[in-house]
Amino acid sequence: MNSAFTDNVNYKILNNPYWHEGVEDLSAYDFLNSGNVIISKINHLLKTKARYEEIADSTNGSNYENIGSFDKCRERKAGFIKWIDKIMEVEKKIERYKTLLADWVKLANSQIELVDNVDYSIVLKCRFIEQMSYEDIGDKIYVSLATVKRWLRYAINDFGRINNYKIES
């Protein structure tokens, strides 16, 4: 297992269900699908941020939209201040997830490169790095849907064997 990944991942931030016991029992599929999990968390946080901004804009008096007219002497009384704090917290989380995703992409790319079969590595990159559907992968590399699924199954097994992940049967 690549220690760069385990050193860079903050498990408490990630809260990834696949990493609840650490990475020793992590399957190849779970590792490869981690990028999708991180992207889902980022999208959820972006929706949360938009909701907080909407709430901050809907408060009476000074609000998030016209923050420039905000009277600093009365900041404790402004209802939207707590929402600005929440927005800033969410923005920090989003940045941490983006950093985590960038680290994961680098590691996943380097581990996928170890797969000997070029077709398998292309399928892995398309599916897990570029988040492409099976149909889109087939269209891109000019093979049938059945071939994409078969190659992906073999590729995940090869990836797991080469990188010492748990192999699912």
Structural class: mainly alpha
Low-confidence stretches: 1-13, 17-22
Total separate domains: 2
Radius of gyration, whole Å:
21 Å
Query: What fraction, in percent, of the residue positions are helical?
Result: 55-70%
Count of extended strands: 0
Largest sheet properties: none
Distance between the termini: 20 Å
Helices and strands, in order, run as HHHHHHH
What shape does the CA trace take?
A: elongated
Number of helices: 7
Provide mean pLDDT, rounded: 81
Roughly what fraction of the amino acids lie in strands?
under 5%
What does this molecule look like?
By secondary structure, the chain is mainly α. The protein folds into 2 domains: 11-112; 116-163. It is 66% helix and 0% strand.
Topology:
Elements: H1 3-8, H2 11-14, H3 28-57, H4 81-112, H5 118-129, H6 134-141, H7 145-163
Helix pairs in contact: 3-4, 4-5, 5-7, 6-7
What's this, in brief?
It is built from 7 helices and no strands. With 169 residues, the protein is mainly alpha-helical. The protein folds into 2 domains: 11-112; 116-163.
List keywords for this structure.
7 helices; 169 residues; elongated; single chain; disordered N terminus; mainly alpha
